[in-house]
Amino acid sequence: MSRPRPSTAAAAIVRGDRRALAKAITAVESGAPAGDALLRELYPRTGRIPIVGLTGPLGVGKSSLINLLVAHLRSNGRSVGVVAVDPSSPFSGGSVLGDRIRLDRRADDPGIFFRSMASRGASGGLADATRDVARLLEAAGFDVVLVETVGSGQVDVAIRGVATTRVVVLVPHLGDEVQTLKAGLFEIADVFCVNKSDLPGAETAERDLAELASLGPAPDGWRARIVRTSTTAPSGIPQLWSAIEAHEAFLAASPAHAAERRRRLEEEIVGRVREEVARRLAERLETDPALRRLVDRVLARELDPRTAAERLVAPGHRGR
């Protein structure tokens, strides 16, 4: 059976219309039905390219590193889409750090596309729409997508469910590397990048990370590579990309990769169901008299919140 003819918007994105791509991303970020429709239509064109996530604490130079990675990839003829996620302002909801300013864009190069997104309070260092925006960039024909996370803490590991290769960026003298990484970043790293390696302590940081990588679990057979880079010299960028390519090649040859992709999709489906159920329930709590009575009983301490939640998901509940 032949595939349905693409819509005008989808066809424009596939042929490289950057204005159509930008409008689609805006629709996805805002949760507009048009964005959902485009994602459904373009999904068959995704899942084939490297999605490289760069995460790590604030101040380690992720944006400068991305600038140099983009330049390296363009010099090798690869087109690059970049999604940079910033923490949101608690007042306006907008992006605080402004990656549109921090990232060096070349307006005359159609092989580069930058998009900054506010995290909008989402946990895990990513905006809710980040995964979908990365898919739109792939559908638009980019060879590589780079995703920069908020990186405001040690538990910002949601990039694990988006990126095929995760790069954890650190700097010398950031602190006790063992303690820094125990909270989760170590477990998600496919590549460690010791940035600002022109500073004292870079060799020590590299050695400590190499020791950690040798001791850590490697259930899929991959042990994290360690690369030293500097964005001021600059240096180490080709080596960083080589380490990323090595991991991508490992994935392509690994029998466990298909199972990992399935697990990630299962997690995504469950997460989307959770979000949709929560949204619908929140709407009903405002309008359904039976559900409002249930909340009234919790408020009166006649019922505890856990039991109320169990009753809401029980088949045939009536809010009593």
Observed structural traits:
320 residues; alpha/beta; Rossmann fold; 3 domains; seven-stranded parallel β-sheet; 13 helices; 7 strands; 12% strand
Short description:
The chain has helices spanning 8-14, 18-30, 33-42, 62-75, 99-102, 130-139, 177-182, 185-188, 202-215, 237-253, 256-287, 289-299, 305-313, and strands at 51-55, 80-86, 112-118, 144-148, 165-170, 191-194, 225-228. It is α/β, with parallel strands linked by helices and 320 residues long.
Any overview of this molecule?
This protein is of the alpha/beta class and 320 residues long. The chain folds into three domains: 45 residues, no CATH class; 207 residues, P-loop containing nucleotide triphosphate hydrolases (Rossmann fold); 52 residues. The chain contains 13 helices and seven strands. The chain has a seven-stranded parallel β-sheet with strand order 3-2-4-1-5-6-7, with helices on both faces. Strand 6, helix 9 and strand 7 form a beta-alpha-beta unit. It starts with 7 loop residues before the first helix and ends in a 7-residue tail after the last helix.
Write the layout of secondary structure elements.
Layout: H1 8-14, H2 18-30, H3 33-42, E1 51-55, H4 62-75, E2 80-86, H5 99-102, E3 112-118, H6 130-139, E4 144-148, E5 165-170, H7 177-182, H8 185-188, E6 191-194, H9 202-215, E7 225-228, H10 237-253, H11 256-287, H12 289-299, H13 305-313
Helix pairs in contact: 1-2, 2-3, 2-6, 4-10, 11-12
